[in-house]
């Protein structure tokens, strides 16, 4: 005998999300950034690594709308290609943190006892470190590279996902449909996968959209201090670092990637706020 999976009703969250204009602004901003990254070579076909010393530190012109850097490379081309790296690092690190962190939180909430106490203590330790400081420590130990950067950022964001997944798991494991499944002899794994995960997935997705902005900021910060992806690969943080040396003579070098980070983070925050307000109307600000 089997029982259907019980998923708590969404209570019209998709309708509330569509009715929120700030949610659509966030979607539009993120869609624009993602499309710009995917179509970088089509939008602006110049090679982001091609150097032309004769055109170094040129002000914005028709040929170079965002000017050139200290090596004569086109800033617009580098900005568009850097979006790919920054978004990929952010997306992979969030996916890793969401998968591992949520699994830890669900296991702690479902099993309880000493395991829950140990996990909670570990999460408190991780949360006591500032995100940037913890990421810096991990990258300094592993070495600067794209893969290590993903791991470092994921480690800094494990705790929020674990905390968000743990709390509803404690509530859900006592619900009637979980108790019914247990009475029918369902295994713990089946109860978690079929009954618990679908009911907390929306909350985890909201956290993911909000913390993706933090991941992009952390990547930019680590790249700025020289612990990100190695040159000449373009990243937004690396471009700001390169432009900082000529901030007075060529402000466009640091301004362009800074604005790109601002737009991306703003879009993700608006999207995350819209999802949060739609899924949990009680969290909506007055």
Explained architecture:
By secondary structure, the chain is mainly alpha-helical. It has a single domain (13-38, 88-281), classed as MetI-like fold. Helix content is 70%, strand content 0%. α4 (75-111) packs across α7 and α4 (75-111) packs parallel to α8. The protein is elongated, with a radius of gyration of 22 Å. The model has no long low-confidence stretch (mean pLDDT 83).
Considering the chains and any ligands shown, give keywords for the structure.
single chain, 286 residues, mainly alpha, MetI-like fold, 12 helices
Structural classification: mainly alpha
Taking the sheet with the most strands, its summary is:
none
CATH superfamily: MetI-like
Poorly predicted runs are: none
Arithmetic mean of pLDDT: 83
Number of separate structural domains:
1
Q: Tell me the name of the CATH class.
A: Mainly Alpha
| CATH-derived architecture | Orthogonal Bundle
> What is the helix fraction of residues, given as a range?
over 70%
Q: Tell the overall outline.
A: elongated
User: Count of helical segments?
Assistant: 12
What is the strand and helix layout of this fold?
Blueprint: H1 13-19, H2 21-38, H3 40-43, H4 75-111, H5 113-127, H6 131-142, H7 146-156, H8 158-172, H9 176-183, H10 188-224, H11 236-244, H12 252-279
